[in-house]
Specification:
alpha+beta, globular, Aminopeptidase, 7-stranded mixed sheet, 39% strand
Amino acid sequence: MSAAPDSMPRLRPMLDADIVQVMEIEREVYPFGWTEAIFRDCLRVGYSCWVWEREGEIIGYSVMSTGAGEAHVLNLAVRPNWRRRGLGRGMLEHLITVAERYDVEAILLEVRPSNRTAMKLYEDLGFQEISRRRNYYPDHEGREDALVLSLQL
C-alpha cells in the first residue's frame, strides 16, 4: 500500500518562516552549527535554499551558493529520525540539477573525514577529493580537517 500524497515529503524553497525548524535540526545535527543569522543572510542574498517538508514539519534542508561557474554546497542536513530514506541523496541530486541550470562547471563542498555516511553519498554521486583544509572544523577535542570534494558537471 502506498502512502497518501500529503504524507510524502516534498522539496520546496526555504522560507524565512522555516528557520525556526531548520535551527532545531541544525542544533541536533551539528555541535558547532550555523546561527539563525547565517541562514537569514543566505536567504536574503538569494542563495539556493531548500527544505524537505512533510505535513508542516521540516525534516531536512540545504544551502548552496552559485557564482563564477561554481556552486558551493554550504550546508545540508536531515533530521536523524528521517535518515537512510534517500532524502539526503534526493536533496543533493536536486542541488546538482539547480547548479546545471546556472551553467555551473563544478560543485564544491567540504566534509569531515569522520563523516563516513556523507563521504559514501558524495562518492556515489561522483564527487572526488581535490584538497584538504587543515583544522577547518571545530571539534570537541580541538579541530578536524575538511576534505574538499568536487563534482565536475
